[in-house]
Structures are given as C-alpha cells and as structure tokens.
Specification:
4-stranded mixed sheet; 9 helices; 213 residues; Glutaredoxin; alpha+beta; homodimer; 2 domains; 4 strands; Glutathione S-transferase Yfyf (Class Pi), Chain A, domain 2
C-alpha cells in the first residue's frame, strides 16, 4: 500500500491512524500542497487523482494498479480488507452513529476550512483564518452535542471507531485556527484517550517524513 | 420513519431516493431553510439536530426516540435495516469505489455550495453564485474522470448505488448555478438512466409537499 499524504492534511491523517490501528504497513509518498503551486496540481498527480486532493491510496493487485481517493472511502475499504480491529461497531444503530460523528468533520467542517477554500475566501476579500475558525466552531459545537450522550471512553462507547479517527485531526486544525476548545469537554476528554494510543501518536503530523518545523 | 427535509436540499433528496428505492414509507416533515431566518435555527429544531441541517431521520424503537443526521450516515443505516435492494456492492473494491464517488458530492462539492456557505461568501464581499459554480465545476470534473472507467449503466457498473443517489441532486444544483454539463457525458448519461426509475422521479424537489413554484 502506498499512501499519498501531506503531513498536515487532516484527511490524510485519518488514513494514517486507520492504517496504524489495523497494523497495515505502507509506503509514504509526500505531496506538498503548498510549494510551487502545489504538487497536487501537477499533471502527474492529477492523472492519479483528478480531484487534486490527498489522501490517495494506491496498490497493485491482480496485475492492476488500483487507486482510491476520499478518506472515508479509504477507511471503508481498509475495514473490509483488514476487519480487525473494527472501526465500526456491528450494531446497525451504533454503526450509523459512528458514521454520523465521522461525517461531521468529514463533510461539515474540513471541506470548509481546507487550504484551497480559505485561499478562495481571501481572494474574494474575506479573512481566511476567521472563516476557517467559524466553521470549526460551528461544527465542533454540533459534534460535542451529538457525542455527549453517545460517548464512553471514546466518541461512541468504549471502542475506538472511525469517529475518533476523524475527531483527532479536526481538533488539531481547530487549535491552529484559534478555536477555544474549553467548550467541548467530551471531545477533549476523548482526545486524551486517543492520544494515549501508539497508533494515534505515530500518525501525528510532526512525526511524518515531510513534516516541517 | 420521519424525515426532516427541505424540497431543494440535495442532501435530503439523497435520503428520499434511498427510502423510495428500498420501499420504506416515511412521514415528510418540512424544514424551511430560508424563511424567517431558517426553521433549522429555531431552538426546537436545534434540540433535535445541533448542526442545524437537513436531512434528519427520526424514529421510535424500544420506547426511545432515535435521530440520525448526515445523509451518508442515514444511507448506511437504511442499508443495514433494509438490505435490499443494496446501495453498495458486496465486493470490497467496488464497495469502496461507490463510497468514493458518493463522497465527491458529499464532502467535496455540496458542503462548499450550500446556502449557509454561499451567504457567508456574500457577506465577505464575494459572489455567492460564482463561488458555488466554481466548486460544482471542479468537483464534477473530478467525478467524471473517476467515473468514466468505472461506469456501466450506472456510476459503478450496472447496479444503482449510493453513488448515483448522490449524483442526481448534485447535477440539479450544478444547473442552478449555471454549470454547463456538456463536459460530463458519463454523468449525464447515468442521470438519464436514473431519471427513468420511479424511486428517483418521486424524490425530485418539485414533487415534495413543501415545493415552491
């Protein structure tokens, strides 16, 4: 497995956590999203991923090269190929709750605060940082409210799930944009429990080969 | 099952298609996203869904009221409860490809062009319609490229999947923002195949109880 990733990309980070949790060894291919107009915009990379995003998972199988984009699709694939430890509970309702809590960062926070978007906001005369902070606050407020009655040691009960995998990178982004996390006690409590796990620790941006100081 | 929906919400539309495909009867609860500051912002609705979005699925079971937000989480739940007809193929790779093509509208297009976001762009001095058009074009270009080698009669092979469920509402939005769809022959061909199905036809905005002329 080869993972096209950028150290500070929160969506790539999710996949790194999942690969670590499942004990899948992978090759790290750095894609610098900022330098020289962004390596994701080169013809070579667009050929691999027309959406020009990371993460991208690539592997050979049956003599063919396969590629998957979109972090949630990659997580769902890893779950099928390496079912243990499971990132989704078996119970249909709990499973759906994990999807819901994972999708709040995935579709209601991260897309609105990624680099390409905040640049466009700046180009339109707005304040990119204030914009990103706003969507983080709005989304995390909802995530805290949804998670409060569902959380145990982790976001949904006492097992690590795809929801936790999406939470940790989002909290890192929120801090970067100046969000005060004191209002989200459930989320920060779960963050502490995740941080104690080696699979989460090894996935952190500063521990990636393309990390910058 | 009670579905909180807005006729022109593309995320609600996805759930309506899935409920129709699976033959699940449901009660339609209209949430007017625009009028009087938006019904999604009332304390009553925020109590049900702190993210202040539609769709929201609500049902009683075992003496408890359950609620699910996030269209992809709702689709995943419907798939568990009513497995047939399946919205995801059994094969792990094909299943992941369906997730990928579904997640392009879900996390890389729709979040960037919804009403709350384009309003914020307008408030920041930008052009909300041009903004929404841009993200639709960028995302659909990638979706067309990914789908071309995977599509049969539908987006992934010859069976309707969650990817088609997400595609149809997105193409409607794209047209509203003035996107020329001629560059996306795979997507518009699949759209025609979906439109021929009654489950898709009944889910269209203009056929909902809260439709406006």
């Amino acid at each position: 497995m080869k993972l096209y990733s950028y150290w500070r990309s929160s969506s790539s980070w999710r996949v790194r956590i999942a690969l670590n949790l499942k004990g899948v060894r992978y090759e790290y291919a750095a894609v610098h999203l900022g330098r020289d107009g962004g390596a994701q915009n080169t013809p070579e990379y667009r050929e691999k991923n027309p959406l020009r995003t990371v993460p991208l998972l690539e592997w050979e199988e049956g003599g063919k090269v396969h590629r998957l984009s979109q972090s949630m699709a990659i997580l769902a694939y890893l779950e099928e190929r390496w079912p243990e430890p499971a990132l989704w509970p078996k119970d249909p309702l709990k499973k759906a709750q994990v999807w819901m809590l994972a999708e709040i960062p995935n579709s209601s926070i991260q897309p609105l605060q990624n680099l390409a978007v905040s640049k466009q906001v700046g180009a339109a005369g707005g304040d990119g940082n204030a914009w990103s902070k706003h969507w983080n606050e709005r989304g995390l407020e909802a995530l805290e409210a949804w998670a409060k009655p569902l959380a145990g040691q982790f976001l949904v009960g006492d097992q690590v799930s795809a929801a936790d995998v999406c939470l940790i990178p989002q909290l890192y982004s929120a801090r970067r944009f100046g969000v005060d996390l004191a209002a989200f006690p459930t989320l920060t409590r779960v963050e502490k429990a995740c941080e104690a796990l080696d699979a989460f620790a090894r996935a952190r941006p500063e521990r990636q080969p393309d990390a910058e100081s």
